[in-house]
Amino acid sequence: MTNTASVVAGLLIVGLVFSVGFLAGSHTTKRKFSQEVLSSFRREDSSSQIVYSSIQQHDEEEEEGEKKGALIVDSEFVETVTGNNELKPFSQSNERGEEKHNDEDVSTPVPSSTPKLNENVDNKVVEGLVKQDKADKNKHPLNEMIETRTRKLGSFEEQQTSITVERGPDCGSCCVENSLLVEKELKRALYLSPNKDPLKKEQNIKYIKTHKTGSSTLGSIMYRFGARHDLVMYKSPSHGLKIDAPKNQNTVPSNIVVHHYAGIATNLRSIEQWDRAYEWYNEVVPNGKYITIVRDPISHYLSYFSFYNEPGGRTLDSFVERGNNKDILMRDFGVRTKVEMDKFMELYADKFYMILVANRMSESLVAMAYMLNWSLWDLTYVSLLDSSKDGFKRWDGKPVKKTLKESQLSPDLLQKLESLTKLDKIFYEYADKELDKIIERIGPKFQATVRQFDALNKALNKFCNCKDLGDEESQMCFWYDLPDLKYERSISEIGHARPFSISYFEKLLAK
């Protein structure tokens, strides 16, 4: 009996020693991986594939991590991404709270636009906001088909884990596969998002919509944010606001304005028109944040000409030679002279809480997310008004040629364009520097967040490009693809718009 007890005790001791050694080795391996990810995130953007391959090989480690929707590696990785250097609250020195001191086409490259849907889906999206029952009439029940997909999670034990996902019977193989990709990227994006509390999101936006700057894409983001959060959006009877006409009192006060304040920039004759517009926005969106978007002046001039002037038979050389469209970006603010420019920069430049830079779209959007406490999902978009593609037509059906690139211009023509955009360049360079300041304040986690936003947006565009989307999926993707004239029209007379989403995405967003 004594000998038997001794043998059992010996076995227990050997097992305990083996377990301790195994755990220590596992912890060493885990810590080594953590350091690799940590250093990867500190490399330049060119090393981003290293980061994502590491993440893909070592996905959510614990079941608890799955439930929380967190990208778990270990505490050191979490500290790298979320950081202890949170963006501190701004002081009250100016609109952004900072103390005063000494086309290329702008959208991220995405697949071709959403496949054309039938007229029923179109009507449900555009008009369904006030007729919920009509929009739901042709919906398919979501729970008729449950597909189980198994993917290999990169835990250290290389375990196989099954994920049960609910899809409608009309969601085909491309739809299912790419919806899972969106879910994966959305889960990571939500973990990296600046804010997870919808009650803390800034909801009052005085959006100054400029022309040919990516402003319709940004306007669509503002519109969907307003619809998702049941905000009041100003309802204008025209595409361009008529600031001297009586206001639509049904939507005053508003949370957001998504229209151009001027139908076309060349209509504005002096900065006094911007003075009146500034007061109009203050009355319509009290306590709102001024947001706008600008673009590299040469790229902007070329895009503006291609869209508005060339379809009428004009040539770029003759247009430039006559001095047309001089400082066309600042004309959106009524600025035509150096005196007016000086006044604008002195009185209004620092009133803008955020100025996005179209040539740095992803950085600008993520910076805006931090500034407004929005999630990365709030920023997602699909390609809108992509005039870089052959066969593109503008609102009146006239074809639009591909916008020339700066590299395609002769030195003489480029010099003339630079002379025609001197005032534009002043505000553009100001906005570019302000964006750099915001990014610097956010800290090292910023570039990781930008990469994750790009991954999410790319996945969403790939998903919406599937030809076998179900009814629910088609409605959401069509809603995302609405051009400005249609999303403006879908705002009801009392300022609300119906959001379209997908139930399985909403489950993640609700966590």
pLDDT < 50 stretches: 1-5, 11-122, 128-164
Major sheet size, sense and barrel closure = 4 strands, parallel
Q: Count all strands and give the number.
A: 6
* Mean pLDDT rating: 74
Structural category: alpha/beta
Q: What does the model show?
A:
The model is unreliable at 1-5, 11-122 and 128-164 (pLDDT under 50). The chain has 511 residues and is of the alpha/beta class. Strands 4-3-5-6 form a four-stranded parallel beta sheet. A two-stranded antiparallel sheet has the order 1-2. The chain has helices at residues 2-41, 48-57, 63-68, 75-82, 119-127, 132-136, 173-192, 215-228, 271-284, 297-309, 316-321, 338-347, 361-372, 411-420, 422-442, 445-464, 471-480, 484-489, 503-509; strands spanning 145-152, 160-167, 205-208, 256-257, 289-294, 352-357. A hairpin with a 7-residue loop joins strand 1 and strand 2. The chain contains 19 helices and six strands.
